[in-house]
Amino acid sequence: MKKIAITLLLAVICPAVFGQKEHPKAKGFLEFLDSKDWKINAALSFAPGAQTEKTYSINLDGYAGFLKNRIEMRGDITYFLGSYGDRPRFSMNHHLYTGAFYHFSEKAFQPYIGIQPGFAVSQSSEYGSLDEATNTIKYNVTVNPLITGAVGFKYYAPRIFYLFAETRYILGKHKSNSYAVHLDEWRAAFGLGIYL
Amino acid sequence: MLLHCPPSLSICTFENYSLMKKLFIAVAFCVPLTCAAQDDKISDYARPGDFQLGMRTTVSLFGHENSPGFGVGGQWRIQPLKVMNTEWFADWITIDLNGAGTRYNGHIGWSVMFYPKKLNRFIPYIMAGHCFDYAKIVPLSTQYLDRSDEIIERWSSAVQMGLGAHYYLNDRFNLSLAAQYMLHLSKHLDYELTDTGNGFYLETQNVTPGEAGLEGHFLITTSLNYRLFCTSKKYRRTKS
Known about the structure:
The complex is a heterodimer of chains A (196) and B (240).
Chain A: H1 2-19, H2 24-35, E1 38-51, E2 55-68, E3 71-85, E4 90-103, E5 109-124, E6 129-131, E7 136-138, E8 141-156, E9 161-174, E10 181-182, E11 185-195
Antiparallel strand pairs in A: 1-2, 1-11, 2-3, 3-4, 4-5, 5-8, 6-7, 8-9, 9-10, 9-11
Chain B: H1 17-37, E1 50-61, E2 69-81, E3 84-96, E4 101-114, E5 122-139, E6 152-168, E7 173-184, E8 192-195, E9 200-203, E10 215-230
Antiparallel strand pairs in B: 1-2, 1-10, 2-3, 3-4, 4-5, 5-6, 6-7, 7-10, 8-9
C-alpha cells in the first residue's frame, strides 16, 4: 500500500517538476532579452485631446521606439476618431511624428521628455470653398507641418510589459485654400506597452 | 592657395567688386581645408562612412512675404571624409499669408558640410549646397467665391549656404541646428498682399512684375539624427 502511494506521488510530482524545466530555446531568448543594453518599445492606446472652446477629441495612438543609453528614437501615428464639444472643427486630423526622447533614469520607473516634429493630414469641417465646376462646397485635405513636445513616464515590469502615461502639446496650423485653423491641442495617453 | 591669387589682390579695394568676389571664394575654400589639416585624431563622433537618418523642423524667415513659414522634413547623411559630410534632404513648408492665402514651399536637395574643428561632442560646420524648389500660392477661397483658377506655382532651382552645429548626445544620436540663406535662381512668383482695411487681399493675376532679380529667404533648421550604421570597416566602432 505504501509502495503504491509512493508510486502515485512520484507519478504526480515528476511530470510537474519536469514540466517546469524551460525549453532551451526559450531560455536562450530570455537570456538574450536580459543581456542586451537596448530596448524596443511599442504601445497602442487611446489618446484624448483638448482644444480651445471646450472641444475634445479622441484619437488612437500607436508608437514604436528604440531606446539605448537613455535616448529613445520614436515614431508615432495617431488616428483621429472624432471630436465633440462647442466647436468640433475637423473631420480629419491624423498625425505622424518622429523624434527623440530623453529618459531620466534607467531603473524600472523612467520619467522622460521628448520632442517630435511631424505632420498632420487634416480636413476642416467648418471652412470649405466653392467649386464652381460642380457648384458644391469642397473641404480640402492638406498636409500640414506640426511640432510636438511630450513628457511622461514608463514603469517597466521585469520582462515584456510596461505601463506608460504621457501628455503632449501639439503646435500647428491647418492651411488649405480656405481659412486657416489652428491644430493646437493638449493630448494625453496612457496604457500598457510591450518591450523587447 | 594664396600663391594662386592674382598679384593685384595686394591692392584690392572695396570698389573692386570682382576682386572681392574672388577673394571671398578663395577664403571660402581655404578655411575648411586648412582647418581640416589640423585634425588628425579620429573622433568618436562623425566618422567617415557614417550613415544617419533624421527628421527636421524648418522655420523660413525674411522671404517675399513678412510672415514666417513653418515646415517639416527629413534627411539622410552619408559622410565621405573625416572633415566632410553630405546631407540629402526634403522639406515641406507652409506659410499663412496674413489670412489671405497660403504659400507652399517644397525643397529637395543636398548640402555639403565642412567640419573645420571637432570639439568632442560639439561639431560646428560650414554648409553649402543646391536644391530644387517648388512654390505654390493659393489665394483664399470661400463658400461663395472660387479662386482656384488664380493659383500660381513654379519649379525652380536654388543654392544655399550657411553655418550649423551638431551636438552628439551619444555616439549614435545628434541634435543639429543650422542657419542658411537660400537663393532661388529662376523667375520668382509675382503676387501682392494688399491691406484693404478689412483684412488682407492676395492678388496673383494682375500684378505688375517686380524687378528682375534673385529671390531668397533665410532658413533655420533643427534636426534630430540617428546613426544607423557605418559603411567603412576602418572607422566602424568596435562596440556598435
